[in-house]
Specification:
With about 625 residues, the protein is α/β, with parallel strands linked by helices. Helix content is about 30%, strand content about 25%. Bound molecules: 5'-O-[(S)-ethoxy(hydroxy)phosphoryl]adenosine.
Length: about 625
């Protein structure tokens, strides 16, 4: 039996059982569905203490041969990428697998000609245009490691990421379109590069045709560099455990860290999970609305679909431009069969009224998906009824940057489905719920810390340049388990994700560490100290609530708030703007100097009736002031 295609619930159960009882045999079975130069001689080696995780050792491959070349003989004329521009009046672009192959190879040759090769890191800071996908694949073609940085991040944040992994090149664009705006991109790169010494090459794609400064010897236009380059570039043969991806993500402490994924395991899992979660069949048109700057875009706009010879839609725009019907117009225009978006987008569109979605046809849809944050019941039912017309299953996919691929999710219409539940684990995934002593909680109707007790092929291998940090963040909380940072509930074997249990805030599906935001706020000259918490937000899932102590007295509070917002935009980017900034005289600290965040969270939630025991606070009276001022802010 080949377990690659799961087409019934029985087969899922069979696959799941096999994956737990004989993990190596199970993954051998799946991995054989890909093209390898040399087959692996050891399927899995692992210990979670190191951590040391190696999949498919001895195996060699190139992921682009699997994502592109192997489809050429029989399906070269199938459409690989449909690009839908920001402006609906601009023409959509369709690239067949043959065309994509030529573009990727040509750009791979450009990179090679600039001295970039296996193991070099390349930062990609770009809007959602085809060259982004081409750039990612061109890196993989020559064995360079891509580090995509979401183009909404600030110059400062970009520079941190470029420096952390010492990128040798940057791929970017002159500017970008977003709704009715056109924004600078290259200018931000220039600003970042003022503090980066490792970058020797900047390739610039022309998008909005604004004026940009080109640095002689360093900067080159994409369209000029491609002229005369061959569209044939032999794929670099990679070891299964060679690096493929670095992607920065936020955690509880410190600066964002570079999550590392490797070639073999990531490929196998991205391909396998895509195929089964979306129940993709050849000829279907699949659309994921995420940005390639996040893991969802890596695994489920680029790699997962292309590994299966799928047609993947790439959308440059936003859900509300030119109007709130755009998503549904695009679904109808390209006859999308699988649609995958985030709860925050669903809630935002739901708030704009049903007429937009009612006006659309949507009969092409077969499966609709959700990702990035817990989906609340109201949004779930609206999505199911209005978008799925009551007939499409919702796949609520729980996973993380670190997991590389879907971990807990329905598989199309095969699995039992329950509103707000992600559902059952994928084959190969062994979730457990732990109590605070690290004991596994058995049975159903229980809640605990969500951990994973056995490796899966696309799990992170390390955090770039700092293996100790990887160990401390994910493998030290509970011995022998990968700790996800999420809490979950289990009913009938199905999981419902409750949300983060650490100091990570999830704002519109974007992850921030409270410490990361506090550090940025504290760098403002008017601030002495700050504490940041998340609070429930109707559209964003969570909002950012900042408590700030000012330096000195007599400040104009509105002016100060503007300054703090400006600092955050500069340090991180507009996506980190706080929803509420409350100026406070002090923070509730224990005698040992620890901030009692529990109290700050309660106040932010507007739930101050019972703040619990405050007797261990150094100065309990500060709580009364914070409470009274918060009520005035009328959150
Ligand atoms: C949250 C995004 C509930 C969760 C793929 C996780 C979810 C974090 C879901 C990872 C879901 C993601 N239901 N919560 N379906 N999907 N999350 O790294 O808290 O950007 O730990 O990866 O998002 O966010 P990341």
């Amino acid at each position: 039996m080949n377990f690659y295609e799961i087409d019934s619930f029985d087969k899922y159960q069979d696959a799941y059982r096999t994956s737990v009882e004989q993990p190596s045999a199970f993954w051998d079975n799946i991995a054989q569905n890909f093209h390898w130069h040399t087959l692996w001689n050891k399927t899995l080696e692992w210990d979670f203490d190191g951590p040391n995780i190696k999949w498919f050792q001895g195996g060699t491959l190139n992921i682009t041969e699997n994502a592109i070349d192997r489809h050429l003989a029989e399906h070269g004329e199938d459409v690989a990428v449909i690009w839908e521009p920001n402006n609906p009046h601009e023409k959509a672009v369709k690239l067949t697998y043959r065309e994509l192959s030529a573009e990727v190879n040509r750009f791979a040759n450009v990179l090679k000609a600039r001295g970039i090769g296996k193991g070099d890191r390349v930062a990609i800071y770009m809007p959602m245009i085809p060259e982004l996908t081409i750039g990612v694949l061109a890196c993989a073609r020559i064995g360079a490691v891509h580090s995509v940085v979401f183009a909404g991040f600030s110059a400062h944040a970009l520079a941190d990421r470029i420096n952390d992994s010492q990128c040798k090149a940057v791929l970017t664009s002159d500017g970008m379109f977003r709704g009715n705006k056109s924004l600078a991109v290259k200018e931000t790169v220039d600003e970042a590069l003022a503090s980066c010494t490792s970058v020797e090459t900047v390739v610039v794609v022309q998008r909005d045709e604004r004026e940009v400064t080109m640095v002689d010897g360093r900067d080159v236009w994409y369209h000029e560099a491609c002229v005369g380059e061959s569209d044939v570039c032999p794929a670099e043969v990679m070891d299964a455990e060679d690096l493929l991806v670095i992607l920065y993500t936020s955690g509880s402490t410190g600066k964002p860290k570079g999550v590392v994924h490797t070639c073999g395991g990531y490929m196998v899992y991205a391909g396998y999970s895509f195929k089964n979660v979306f129940q993709y069949e050849r000829g279907d048109v699949y659309w994921c609305t995420a940005d390639v700057g996040w893991i969802t875009g890596h695994s489920y706009i680029i790699y997962g679909p292309l590994l299966n010879g799928a047609t993947t839609v790439m959308f440059e725009g936003v859900p509300t431009f030119p109007d709130a019907g755009r998503f549904w117009q695009v679904v109808d225009k390209h006859r999308v069969n699988q649609f995958y978006t985030a709860p925050t987008a669903i809630r935002a569109l739901m708030a704009m009224g049903d007429e937009w979605v009612n006006d659309a046809d949507l009969h092409s849809l077969k499966v609709i998906g959700s990702v990035g944050e817990p989906i609340n019941a109201e949004a779930w039912y609206w999505y199911h009824e209005k978008v799925g017309r009551g007939r499409c299953p919702i796949v609520d996919t729980w996973w993380q940057t670190e997991t590389g691929g879907h971990m807990i999710s329905g598989l199309g219409d095969l699995s039992p489905q329950r509103a707000t539940f992600a559902g059952l684990p994928l084959p190969g995934v062994q979730p457990v719920l732990l109590d605070s002593d690290g004991q596994e909680i058995a049975g159903d109707g229980v809640e605990g810390y969500l951990c994973i007790k056995h490796p899966w092929p696309s799990m992170l291998r390390t955090t770039y340049g700092d293996h100790e940090r990887c160990k401390n963040t994910y493998f030290s909380h509970y011995n022998g388990y990968y700790f996800t940072g999420d809490g979950a509930r289990r009913e009938d074997g199905m999981y419902r994700i409750i949300g983060r249990v650490d100091d990570v805030i999830n704002v519109s599906g974007h992850r921030f560490g409270t410490a990361e935001i506090e550090n940025a706020i504290n760098s403002s000259s008017v601030v002495t100290e700050s504490a940041v918490v998340g609070y429930p937000h109707d559209i964003k899932g969570q909002g950012i609530y900042a408590y700030v102590i000012l330096e000195g007295e007599g400040h104009d509070h509105d002016q100060v708030r503007r300054e703090i917002v400006a600092t955050l935009v500069e340090e991180i980017g507009p996506i980190a703007k706080p929803d509420v900034i409350q100026i406070v005289p002090g923070l509730p600290k224990t005698r040992s100097g620890k901030i009692m965040r529990r109290i700050l969270r309660k106040v932010a939630e507007g739930d101050t009736s019972n703040l619990g025991d405050t007797s261990t606070l150094l100065d309990p009276s500060v709580v009364d002031v914070i409470k009274a001022d918060a009520e005035k802010l009328q959150v």
